[in-house]
Amino acid sequence: MSIARVLAVVGIAVGLATCSGAPTARQLGQNAIDAMGGAERVQRVNTLTMKGGVGTRYRHGQSVKVGDAEPAGMLKNVIETLDRVNNRAALDYELQIGAFGQHRREILTKTADGRAVGLEDVAGRPLAVMSPSGLFSWGTQNHPEFLLKRNVIAVALAAAQSASDDAPQDKTFEDRTMKAALATLPSGESITVYFDPESKLIAGFDALDTESMLGDAPSQYVFADYKDVGGVKLPHKITIRKLGQPYSDVQYSSAAVNEAGADKTFAIPAAVNDEVTKAVAAGEYSPLTITKIADGVYFARAYSHNSMVVEFPTWLAVVEAAYTDAQSATLVRVLHEQFPGKPIRYAAVTHHHYDHTGGVRGLAAVGATILAEKGHEPALRMIVETPHTNPPDALENARKAGKAGALEIFEGKKVLSDGKQTLELYSVTGNPHVEPKVLAYVPSARALFQSDLWFPGLGAPAGPEAVHLLQSITALKLPVATHVGGHGGVGSHAELVKAVAAVKQ
């Protein structure tokens, strides 16, 4: 049979299928819109506020040892606000992981002239302004921007508008056979959308998420418990899986469409206008200042997660690439201005927790060698070596250009020395917070840096972690005079001794 004849037969078959009433992929999307309340109502959803959420965040990088099961992060009082018209989104939630608890708000908003900025508000700390990439979240999503790209309204409209006129495929989703169709989101991403055969509503979708910690992660979003909200049916239970494992789930008690006052969620207080100007001008920005501790040793104080900088004759070493790549980018910029001609050659990691490794890729992107203890290797190797392509980040681009820093593993102890300056890294075991734990010591300044074990400079009480810290310093015979905190500030060794003594009384 000739090719022309084959094409003609295929064309007839497709025409018969269409005439027989079998819906095309696009028609399934349009049917879903109709089931939600109709195109006019769905398209009129400008703001969407999900309220009273209770759920779990499973992936948060807080295990004691790499490879251990992570304790469940319990979420409550979750409020998620989406502004589709102005591309703004906000996460507001309370998180409890064991004894650790926080109320957090991460807000992706815009200035009056339409430039994007981030606001982060953690209980007990002043509101922080940063670039959108500087936002760190332990909520249902990795970042508020995911709400903009992954919400049910965006998915439904994409399925109705961009899906093809081809026949959908039969695929298994949530242990049921459903029709599946490809759709293109406004971001340009292709996703696979699944349609419930009974309700006609969208049951969920598959996408490629690029997570700050997990990298390129095939992800699945499940929509359930649809309820009427102002004439539009919306899912009140959302489950997310990434890399085939549970990531988060949340059950909302209520929702509101175009709620009066939703705009207030995204308001930028006039008191932070100066910081907004800095963030917009810098492009990549997170609050950070550098202060001198001793000759060649500096404290990089950030919004919540600090670093220590050690100056060598021709290069610099950073201890702790914390929080986000935006913080790393800010640190790189500040150090370039303060120490022209001295590149960051090394960045040392104290432990594998997400909030203390979120800036690792940003420092590797400028060529820094990432120093990680052998016990942390699997987690750091994933962070540094997993592709981040949707969209590509700074390290992905640096790797293509042959300018990326590599991962270097040490065991027990690592010493960096050049000229009269030395930085010593010690791995200690037995601390209840994390296993192992790296302490960074600069002999010339008798200064020691650690994260999460004790907050120096604040008169903070000592817990079991601080007691073990003092025991470790004594066992290593380090003549520490000054403590530099990954949290808190700078304090004396006498302050730690006093705090620990108070615990033992």
Task: Give structural notes.
The chain is an alpha+beta fold and 505 residues long. The chain has 2 domains: 21-266, outer membrane lipoprotein receptor (LolB), chain A, CATH 2.50.20; 286-504, Metallo-beta-lactamase, Chain A. Helices cover 24% and strands 37% of the residues. It is built from 12 helices and 27 strands. It has helices at 3-19, 25-36, 39-43, 145-150, 152-162, 273-282, 325-338, 360-364, 377-385, 394-400, 464-476, 493-504; strands at 47-57, 73-83, 88-97, 100-110, 116-122, 128-130, 169-173, 176-184, 190-195, 202-211, 215-229, 232-242, 245-251, 254-257, 288-294, 297-302, 307-311, 316-319, 344-348, 369-373, 407-410, 413-418, 421-428, 437-442, 447-450, 482-485, 490-492. Strands 1, 2, 3, 4, 5, 6, 7, 8, 9, 10, 11, 12, 13 and 14 form a 14-stranded antiparallel sheet that branches. A 7-stranded mixed sheet has the order 15-16-17-18-19-20-21. The longest helix has 17 residues, at 3-19. The termini are far apart.
